[in-house]
């Protein structure tokens, strides 16, 4: 049997329609970016799910560490004043 | 001040499961949970891929251009399902090559249903209607399975499945409304596929040792027997509508349980097919291995081409 070497893994992001964000939909293997985009079209947009595709080689994605997520996202925990609901608006005031 | 009790990783994991919080790839998980998922997801992926073979057998012989286009499209969907599932399994640390090797060596299993032959065009109708119907029954609860990437893959799969079942039902309906010989073809296909389809839900609960743990981890939401019962209850009225006779002399409505009583599956046949002795086990694996080996040069050439282009680009930039 021939020696095996896998094509690299790519993450696929699709914009479902003009005006919306690209959203992660899945991943696939491909030899290069062009092939990744073509394969993504064939697999992830068979029913007109997209108008634009991004692919990123998975090894280029850096992620926050889930084990540290409690501490990492902690700074946002006690800052309720960042939300509009923190503020009291008198009933007489309309449109705010 | 409140005391902070350090929770063990295991406790945190169990807490997430209890609170219906999905487990994601980089989260800590028990080794056995990971192993169970790799086995189940890769087995599921293999089933999608091997499942293309019995239907692919009829693409060139579909009775009309419309049916050919539909069947081609369905089989293409199944390839996509395989890909979604392989990708989900890869997030658990296994590799595509490893999974494919395991399929080809016989170490990994796939659904035993695909080891039965498709003898007539009516079999294509029966597969869509029954086999995809059973697959949907299995897959809908998996959209809520506890492992995030698996659940997301299943949502995508389920969206695509319902057309599969409907096109199968439509084929059966055309045959059942056709000439007596066509109706008979439909009945014979139904007879061939009914029992193997019931086997798709897996062994009886008391003979399925992994079920309990999988239910606790919320990988599975229903037991094999529960799903099998639901499937029978759903399909019998559809068969009646088509004017087909369910090939089970023990089938009887049971008012008390609000469901059908039905005969026992031939478990000896089931285990025999699982062990590799079904009518098409060897053909299926041989076809997969052949396709993989004959495609090796394409995979190598594409990689070599990509490397060459990358080198050229690097050289241009260095200028
Ligand atoms: Fe499928
Ligand atoms: Fe399907």
Automatic annotation (TrEMBL), chain A:
Pfam families: PaaB. Gene3D superfamilies: Phenylacetic acid degradation B. NCBIfam families: PA_CoA_Oxy2. This is 1,2-phenylacetyl-CoA epoxidase subunit B. The lineage of its organism: Bacteria, Pseudomonadati, Bacteroidota, Cytophagia, Cytophagales.
From TrEMBL, chain B:
GO terms for cellular component: cytosol. One of its GO terms (biological process) is phenylacetate catabolic process. Gene3D superfamilies: 1.20.1260.10. Signal peptide: none annotated. InterPro entries: Aromatic_CoA_ox/epox, Ferritin-like, Ferritin-like_SF, PaaA, PaaA_PaaC. GO terms for molecular function: phenylacetyl-CoA 1,2-epoxidase activity. This is 1,2-phenylacetyl-CoA epoxidase subunit A. It comes from Rufibacter immobilis.
């Amino acid at each position: 049997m021939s020696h095996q070497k896998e094509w690299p893994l790519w993450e696929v992001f699709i914009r479902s329609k003009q005006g919306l964000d690209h959203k992660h939909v899945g991943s696939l293997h491909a030899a290069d970016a062009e092939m990744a985009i073509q394969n993504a079209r064939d697999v992830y947009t068979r029913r007109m799910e997209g108008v634009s595709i991004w692919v990123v080689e998975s090894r280029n994605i850096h992620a926050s560490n889930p084990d540290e997520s409690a501490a990492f996202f902690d700074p946002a925990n006690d800052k309720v004043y960042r939300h509009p609901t923190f503020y009291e608006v008198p009933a007489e005031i309309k449109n705010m | 001040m409140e005391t902070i009790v350090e929770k063990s990783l295991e406790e945190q994991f169990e807490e997430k499961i209890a609170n219906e919080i999905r487990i994601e790839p980089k989260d800590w998980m028990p080794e056995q949970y990971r192993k169970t998922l790799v086995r189940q997801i890769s087995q599921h992926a293999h089933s999608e891929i091997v499942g293309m073979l019995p239907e692919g057998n009829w693409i060139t012989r579909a009775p009309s251009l419309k049916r050919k286009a539909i069947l081609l499209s369905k089989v293409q969907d199944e390839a996509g399902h395989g890909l979604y599932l392989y990708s989900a399994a890869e997030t658990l640390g296994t590799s595509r090559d490893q999974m494919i090797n395991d399929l080809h060596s016989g170490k990994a299993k796939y659904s035993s249903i695909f080891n039965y032959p498709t003898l007539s065009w009516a079999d294509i109708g029966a597969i869509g209607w029954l086999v995809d119907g059973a697959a949907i029954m299995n897959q809908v609860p998996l959209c809520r399975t506890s492992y995030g990437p698996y659940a997301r893959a299943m949502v995508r799969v389920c969206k695509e499945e319902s057309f599969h079942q409907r096109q199968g039902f439509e084929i059966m309906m055309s045959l059942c409304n056709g000439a007596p010989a066509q109706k008979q073809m439909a009945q014979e296909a139904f007879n061939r596929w009914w029992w193997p389809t019931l086997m798709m839900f897996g062994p009886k609960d008391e003979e399925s040792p992994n079920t309990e743990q999988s239910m606790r981890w919320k990988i599975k939401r229903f037991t094999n027997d529960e799903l099998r019962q639901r499937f029978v209850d759903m399909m019998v009225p559809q068969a009646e509508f088509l004017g087909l006779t369910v090939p089970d002399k023990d089938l009887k409505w049971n008012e008390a349980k609000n469901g059908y009583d039905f005969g026992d599956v031939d478990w000896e046949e089931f285990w025999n097919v699982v062990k590799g002795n079904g009518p098409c086990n060897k053909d299926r694996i041989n076809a997969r291995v052949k396709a993989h080996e004959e495609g090796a040069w394409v995979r190598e050439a594409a990689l070599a081409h990509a490397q060459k282009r990358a080198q050229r680009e690097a050289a241009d930039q260095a200028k």
